[in-house]
Amino acid sequence: VQLQASGGGLVQAGGSLRLSCVASDRTFSNYAVGWFRRAPGKGDEFVAGITWSGGDNSYADSVKGRFTISRDNAKNTVYLQMNSLKSEDTAVYYCAAAPTRNRRGENVYEYWGQGTLVTVSS
């Protein structure tokens, strides 16, 4: 499965962006999907996750109430709606798909997109 992330760009603080993650294969609809980000000089951070059905979402505390993850399986696409953006949201955002879980029940992300840059100016 190949993932293509898009929708990044330059936005002022308080603005909004919507990221998209499009998959090349319909099996994507059976996978949990997550958005991650890597800010300059920092490690990877989980941002949001969604189950295959879209019925259960999870968010990092830093984005709760501002970001919304959703999916349209008919379009093989997962979205990340980002509102009330802050300068600390500046990062490269990646989407990833998890076809399996480990013994602890955690998603195992095997497929990764190339990343899209989000820059929030203050």
Order of helices and strands: EEEEEEEEEEEEE
Shape: globular
- Return the average pLDDT rounded to an integer: 96
Pick out the low-confidence regions.
none
Structural class: mainly beta
- Can you give the helix content as a percent range? under 10%
The biggest sheet, with number of strands, parallel, antiparallel or mixed sense and barrel status, is: 7 strands, mixed
Number of helices: 0
Quaternary state of the chains:
single chain
Give a description of the structure:
This protein is mainly β and 122 residues long. It is 0% helix and 52% strand. The chain is built from no helices and 13 strands. The strands form 3 sheets. Strands 2, 4, 5, 6, 9, 12 and 13 form a 7-stranded mixed β-sheet that branches. A hairpin with a 6-residue loop joins strand 5 and strand 6. The N and C termini lie far apart (37 Å).
Task: Please specify the SSE layout and strand pairing.
Layout: E1 3-6, E2 9-12, E3 17-23, E4 32-38, E5 44-50, E6 57-59, E7 67-72, E8 77-82, E9 91-98, E10 100-101, E11 107-108, E12 111-112, E13 116-121
Parallel strand pairs: 2-13
Antiparallel strand pairs: 1-3, 3-8, 4-5, 4-9, 5-6, 7-8, 9-12, 9-13, 10-11
Features:
mainly beta; four-stranded antiparallel β-sheet
Condensed summary:
This protein has 122 residues and is mostly beta strands. The protein has no helices and 13 strands.
